[in-house]
TrEMBL record:
GO terms for molecular function: ATP binding; phosphorelay sensor kinase activity. It is found in: Cell membrane. Pfam families: ArlS_N, HATPase_c, HisKA. InterPro entries: ArlS_N, HAMP_dom, HATPase_C_sf, HATPase_dom, His_kinase_dom, HisK_dim/P_dom, HisK_dim/P_sf, HssS/ArlS-like. Residues 238-450 form the Histidine kinase domain. This is Signal transduction histidine-protein kinase ArlS. It is an enzyme of class 2 (transferase). It catalyses: ATP + protein L-histidine = ADP + protein N-phospho-L-histidine.
């Protein structure tokens, strides 16, 4: 059974469970009100008789015509003496005569069953001054009241049945409207399954209910899947392009060895060295691609508090022996505590310094500073700089500003892409530009964590 059918039936039964008891309560209260009103009418008739007919006339025999004047339909009026003997009696139905007469000293009114029919009885004392000398008794069969109640039952039954049909139809219509986004979502998912094309649900901006939020979440999920698929296609395309180049070089040199390498030792060694270098390069690119893919899909950081000045010094010490060029660290304080992933931040610094080391002329400056909201690491080298039209593309995978130099320097074009991914994981920013009167300037900002105090 579909969920919208369950919801429709549940709302229908919920409405019926409220409607039926409410209907019975209304009928019961109306019937009680009508019976009380009928009793009041009988009591009023008894008071009228006692007002217009004297007590002695009521207890005088053969005065039935006087009582008949006040006789309602389907009723009986009789006067009784102190011994409950009937003195006068007027009736328009013989069935009520079987009710035994009863003398009372106080007024009473009630209803009882007679031959499966309800009858109403009102008894009022007949007083002569302050003395009670008899009883006036009025008995009626409320035929009109019963007919009115039967008509009410019929009307209530028809209205209830109509309400049940309308509520059932309305429940199914309402559930269909409410679960329309779910139906669209199911249809969209089926279309995605068949065509493998990413599609989104239309959103009703006027409604901000849970179904709207579900549709919005579904669209966000589709966006993430679409981005993931694009990254996967880009990953395959970039890797295929890079490996194709290296495999072409390896194939060319191996063919050269097969033809001439065994006759020419120098050519043989040159080919082997080229194949070895390209193999190492492919291995390095593979590791970097795997690392980049892991960073993009595993958004977990191992946060700790450490000194950013110390981390920069360690990074400089690692690279300084590899070059005769100088790295200069300039900090606004002797220590600068930061909360971040230490290993990943160290990798960012090494990537940027490694790029600077390949292209700088004499030295690279590393400036450390701190504001109320973030830490800032600024790298400025005196290298050849980057053409302005190339700056928007430097963080793309496998992008090289100078492709001829990249082969010589061993660059794969993945370093800055990895650095940008790490900085994004830290909710920070990384910018690259041409420094005035220098070469290239890279600025990395990492926001200060507000949830903890690193000091």
């Amino acid at each position: 059974m579909k969920i919208k059918t369950k919801a429709s039936l549940l709302s229908f039964f919920w409405l019926i469970s409220i409607l039926l008891p409410l209907t019975f309560i209304i009928y019961y209260l109306y019937a009680q009100y009508e019976k009380e009103e009928e009793m009041e009418i009988l009591q009023f008739t008894a008071n009228q008789i006692l007002t217009h007919i004297s007590p002695l006339e009521l207890l005088q025999e053969d005065n039935n015509p006087m009582l008949r004047t006040y006789l309602p339909d389907y009723s009986m009026i009789r006067s009784l003496d102190l011994s409950s003997k009937v003195i006068n009696q007027a009736a328009n139905t013989s069935e009520l005569a079987v009710i035994p007469p009863k003398h009372i000293d106080t007024q009473e009114s009630y209803s009882q069953k007679l031959n499966d029919q309800t009858v109403m009885i009102v008894r009022t004392p007949i007083r002569q001054g302050t003395e009670i000398i008899g009883t006036l008794e009025i008995v009626t069969e409320p035929i009109e009241l019963d007919q009115s109640l039967y008509r009410l039952i019929g009307i209530i039954g028809i209205v209830t049945l109509a309400a049940m049909l309308i509520s059932l139809s309305a429940s199914f219509l309402l559930s269909k409207l409410l679960f329309l986004p779910l139906s669209r979502m199911i249809q969209t998912m089926k279309e995605i399954e068949m065509s493998l094309a990413i599609k989104k649900l239309p959103l009703n901006r006027k409604s901000k209910d849970e179904l709207y939020q579900l549709s919005e979440t579904f669209n966000h999920l589709m966006e993430r899947i679409e981005i993931s698929m694009k990254k996967q296609r880009q990953f395959i395309s970039d890797a295929s392009h890079e490996f194709k180049t290296s495999l072409t070089i390896i194939e060319g040199y191996t063919s050269l060895i097969r033809r001439w390498g065994f006759e020419n030792t120098d050519l043989h060694m040159e080919a082997l060295n080229a194949v070895h270098d390209e193999s190492k390069r492919m291995k390095h690119i593979t590791y970097q691609l795997l690392e980049l893919a892991e960073l993009e899909h595993e958004e977990r950081l191992t946060l700790c508090v450490f000194d950013l000045v110390t981390l920069c010094k360690e990074s400089i010490q690692l690279l300084q022996p590899l070059s005769n060029k100088e790295f200069m660290l300039i900090s606004s304080g002797s220590d600068m505590m930061i909360e971040a992933d230490r290993l990943q931040m160290k990798q960012v610094i090494l990537i940027i310094l490694d790029n600077a080391m390949k292209y700088m002329k004499h030295r690279t400056y590393i400036y450390l500073s701190k504001t109320d909201s973030n830490h800032c690491i600024r790298f400025v080298d005196d290298g050849i700089g980057i053409p302005t039209e190339e700056l928007p593309f430097v963080f793309e995978r496998f992008y090289r500003v100078d492709r001829s130099r990249s082969r010589q320097t061993g660059g794969s074009g993945l370093g800055l892409a990895i650095a940008k991914c790490i900085v994004n994981l830290h909710k920070g920013t990384i910018q690259i530009s041409n420094a005035p009167h220098y070469g290239t300037e890279v600025i990395v900002t990492i926001p200060i964590c507000k949830t903890s105090n690193p000091f």
